[in-house]
Amino acid sequence: MKLALISPKGVGLGTNEENRWTEALYDSLNGIDSLRELMSCANSPLLTVAAILESFFDEMEYIDEEIEGIDWDKHYDMVAMSFMTQQASRAFVLAEKFKQKGVYLIAGGMHPTNSPEETLQYFDTVFIGEGEVTLPQFMNDYLQNKPLKVYENKNEINMDEVPLPRYDLLKMERYRTIPLQISRGCPHNCEFCASTKVYGPKYRHKSVNRVMQEIKIIESLKPNPHIYFTDDNMLVKKDFAIELLDALKGKKMRWMTHTDISVADQDEILKRLFPSGCRKLVVGFESIIPESLCNIEKWKYNRMQKYGEEIQKIQSYGVGVWGTFIVGLDGDDKSVFQRVVDFTLENNLYGAMISVPTPFPGSSLYDRLLKEDRILSLNWGSYTLWNVVVQPKNMSVEELKEGFRYVLSQIYSKEATERRMEYFKKIYSALRREKS
What we know:
The chain contains 18 helices and 14 strands. It is α/β, with parallel strands linked by helices.
């Protein structure tokens, strides 16, 4: 049997107007190579799915629609897709085409987990949650001609028992950044986030030995790789983080990951980041407007007054902070746009990921805005985090759209980009002097 593992296209699937507007905006920005790199990473969960299912198939093929097309003349017995909400519309189109060819279709990931009934309109079987236990169960049922429509995982997966991802299926030459998942689960419960429905709130991680084993495989396929640890909150457990960073020290690789701002409290972690190869941390600030942040997550609200000094401290160790911000929240008025620009530039953030409120199915935000009748579009291709798909509370749709454009144009202007480069040159020079 032959299996195709497909990551559907997730960019440029909004309306024609949205796509033209987005293309023109991002083409006008400076210094966004790191952002493009982050957005063009391979689909990590599918590589694990491949490892789970490899004993059941004679042949497997990984297809990433962001870098290649689908050969519709090829025959597959089964197609597996893992996708987020912004990929869902495209996934459904692909499913309909494969179904016409008589292919058995299975789906998992963020959107299928949070919208299983919708997904079942297009796929034969849907997986809810983690698939390490349910995928083999399904295959045994499938081979006996009695597969179920839904398989739901209710077990807590031991991360060291997750099979080694099939990195060999990737067309390594097409990727600048390779994904690696160390942990699952996040202790925070932000209103806009749907990932806890998949992985839960408990932080679970692989052993350091297991992580190093995966890195060795990646290095054998792509020397001196740039690795994106895809975890929601990689550095949240101090002892594990220190052990891992010590193991990474001296390797010829660079990496980035997500963490929360509490890493600023951990000097033992901070001093190990740069020597381990870390150059960027994505930190979810979400908002600098007290009324908005309080509604998103109380823990972050309680730390907001120290954001500036914590950013400065982290970056003094040679690690750039990529801040994430949502503009147009219910506590925001039109002043939010300039305030985010000022905060980003005054604190010399390495970069900023700006988004607008996006109610992903499975999130508390989706449930609330649906009840308030404020969701303007259910075209999943528009759910990119930069298309306005909800009615803002204190401004018009056009004002939010223009404000979003303004924030990005200011943060990624030529002048702002040059100032950031000069700021980090001084930090790196200071670090070199200390080392010598």
